[in-house]
Design goal:
The protein is α+β, with helices and mostly antiparallel strands. 26% of the residues lie in helices and 34% in strands. The radius of gyration is 27 Å and the shape is globular. The model has no long low-confidence stretch (mean pLDDT 86). Bound molecules: guanosine-5'-diphosphate and magnesium ion (MG). This is Elongation factor 4. It is found in: Cell membrane. Keywords: Cell membrane, Elongation factor, GTP-binding, Hydrolase, Membrane, Nucleotide-binding, Protein biosynthesis. Pfam families: EFG_C, GTP_EFTU, GTP_EFTU_D2, LepA_C.
Length: 598
């Protein structure tokens, strides 16, 4: 396609504002997908994504459209994920575009993630096409949206289009606006190939499928290409576009978006953000790539049945091919057996990975209390990074500990300011600024420890504001805090899987909670069992399980009969599930019960 007829764009929106629905309407309106084949939310092709209404994996789609001026245009839609945990994927997608359609739910108005996404888009110099969606709903408040567009986003209200992605009203106007307002890919002097790897996937027969944006030159099958960062060369096997199925083409030229397959078998050789260039005539400078993202949250993930360990390892490997931001490493625990230490970008990312393991790979897993990466300064002047409480050095060797902090923007209706501020304080945060964004909404800026956000901040904010509050955050460095290691012990032996790093003031209540839960699930034995929560050398909570008398089962477990029976059946299933902590035998199921609740 001729450069001037190409439009590369993304759709950006706060979660649930209608990005996927609009994408589906565009596919339909351009006859990319026939009405008959139209499956609800075609771009979100994973069950999990559909259920949670989020798009995790960006995947470009090429559409062809005859505009009002009778010219045919190529529209490349690059879908972006809407959640804060995936900001890196958003900017990655935006780097391949000249414009973005900004969707705002007209009943809700601008939300925190709308602002975050717009910031990313404006930084990349993209042309924004603002669209107010869901105008079929009775709660539509266009006046509020216009005011917010101007006040918060500095976008003139008259630029806004409106539509109902559900009914299809207003969609043709949006396509015309994409063609009229978003510039075509710029003309470049460079004629040699420079193509950005925007994303990739893995096909077991054909190897790595690179999703690319060609910035200069062109590429076809049989061309010799070189990866700029590794210097490795390959022969191109096939180039093409997603329609949304893969469709091979003769050539991908300047300005276009599509895929490139080159018999690359090792995913490590195809780095997202790298530049693909010509082997014979390489460019001298790489295209601006992407910063590598580092995991911010860690947790142990264990198979409930230790026989599943190898299968779990394989499943994690496959998952990582599709999601390089997820990292894992084998580890073992006395309580849980063999498993993995896993790193995630944030809480949502962690939940999604675990759900995928459970559903797509049918794995029965349990995970430990999440941890962030602490900077531990030792008395000898050294600094060590700790993401696993088990490896926190002895308190006597520690000078001080720093934890990661984030700066958050929280958008809420005025009525909830007081409640939001006390939640921030409860979570050890600091409110820095409050700005009225319109008559009914404010934006709070606050600084908070990442660990508190990871635990339950977002859920609390949502339920407290009846779903109207929204939050967006970015890392803002490290800060010193009185953090301690909370350890749980049975008869003086530590249960490694329950160790956690917590704020000094929260240690006692957390210790007491876990001790109570353990007491309810650890079976009685021939001797008394002391369950103790320790901080440093001090006991902060204690429960006692008295020695067993005659009736073995009657008081074994708290809880209802059916659970008791299930536990007994599980125990019968094999003694291998029993874990020995010191002199105490504890069924793994007991640990699982407590971890699930904590
Ligand atoms: P995304 O998270 O931005 O991808 O949002 P979705 O496209 O998944 O939409 C979220 C919800 O809003 C879904 O239940 C959609 O059916 C609904 N929705 C999207 N657009 C409209 C619209 O124009 N009108 C109405 N009434 N509902 C819509
Ligand atoms: Mg979606």
């Amino acid at each position: 396609m001729e450069r001037k007829k190409i439009r590369n764009f993304s759709i950006i929106a706060h979660i649930d504002h209608g990005k996927s629905t609009l994408a589906d309407r565009l596919l339909q309106m351009t006859n990319t997908v026939s009405d008959r084949d139209m499956e609800e939310q075609l771009l979100d092709n994973m069950d999990l994504e559909r259920e949670r209404g989020i798009t995790i994996k960006a995947h470009p789609v090429t559409m062809s459209y005859k505009a009002n001026n009778d010219e045919i245009y190529e529209l490349n839609l690059i879908d972006t994920p809407g959640h804060v945990d995936f900001a890196y994927e958003v900017s990655r997608s935006l780097a391949a575009c000249e414009g973005a359609v900004l969707i705002i739910d007209a009943t809700q108005g601008v939300q925190a993630q709308t602002v975050a996404n717009i910031d990313l888009a404006m930084k990349q110099g993209l042309t924004i096409v603002p669209v107010l969606n869901k105008i079929d709903l009775p709660g539509t408040d266009l006046a509020m949206c216009y005011e917010q567009l101007e006040e918060i986003l500095a976008i003139p209200a008259e630029e806004a289009l409106h539509c109902s992605a559900k009914s299809g009203e207003g969609i043709p106007e949006i396509i015309e606006a994409i063609i009229d307002r978003i510039p075509c890919p710029p003309e470049v002097e460079e004629k040699t190939l420079a193509s950005l790897i925007v994303d990739s996937s893995y096909d077991s027969y054909r190897g790595v499928v690179n999703y690319v944006r060609v910035f200069s030159g062109e590429v076809r099958a049989k061309d010799q290409i070189t990866m700029f960062s590794t210097g490795k060369s390959y022969e191109v096997k096939e180039v093409g576009v997603f329609t949304p199925k893969m469709k091979a083409l003769d050539v991908l030229s300047e300005g276009s978006v599509g895929y490139l397959i080159a018999n690359i078998k090792d995913t490590a050789d195809s780095k997202i953000g790298d530049t693909i260039t010509s082997k014979m005539d390489p460019v001298t400078e790489a295209l601006p790539g992407f910063a590598e993202v580092l995991p911010m949250v860690y947790s142990g993930v264990y198979p409930i049945d230790s026989a599943d360990f190898e299968t779990l390892r394989l499943s994690m490997g496959k998952l990582q091919l599709n999601d390089p931001s997820f990292v894992y490493q084998a580890e073992s625990s006395a309580a849980l057996g063999f498993g993995f230490r896993c790193g995630f970008l944030g809480l949502l990312h962690m939940e999604i990975v675990q759900e995928r393991l459970r559903r797509h790979y049918d794995m029965d897993i349990i995970s430990t209390y999440p941890s962030v990466v602490y900077h531990v300064y030792l008395k000898d002047g050294e600094m060590v990074q700790v993401d696993n409480p088990v490896y926190l050095p002895d308190p006597s060797a520690i000078d001080y500990i720093e934890e990661p902090v984030i700066s958050a923007n929280i958008m809420i209706p005025n009525d909830y300011i007081g409640a939001a501020m006390s939640l921030i304080m409860e979570k050890r945060g600091l409110c820095e600024n409050t700005v009225a964004v319109d008559e009914r909404h404010v934006m709070l800026s606050a600084s908070l420890p990442l660990h508190e956000i990871v635990i339950d901040f977002n859920d609390r904010l949502k339920s407290m504001t009846k779903g109207y509050g929204s939050m967006n955050y970015k890392p803002s460095g490290y800060q010193q805090a009185p953090l301690v290691k909370l350890e749980m012990k049975v008869n003086d032996d530590p249960i490694d899987a329950f160790a956690s790093i917590v704020h000094r003031d929260a240690a006692e209540s957390r210790g007491r909670k876990i001790a109570e839960r353990l007491k309810a699930v650890v079976p009685r034995q021939m001797f008394t069992i002391a369950i103790q929560a320790y901080v440093g050398g001090n006991i902060v909570a204690r429960e006692t399980i008295s020695a067993m008398r005659k009736n073995v089962t009657a008081k074994c477990y708290g809880g209802d009969i059916s659970r008791k029976r299930k536990l007994l059946e599980k125990q019968k299933a094999g003694k291998k599930r029993m874990k020995q902590i010191g002199n105490v035998n504890i069924p793994q199921e007991a640990f699982v019960q407590v971890l699930k609740a904590s």
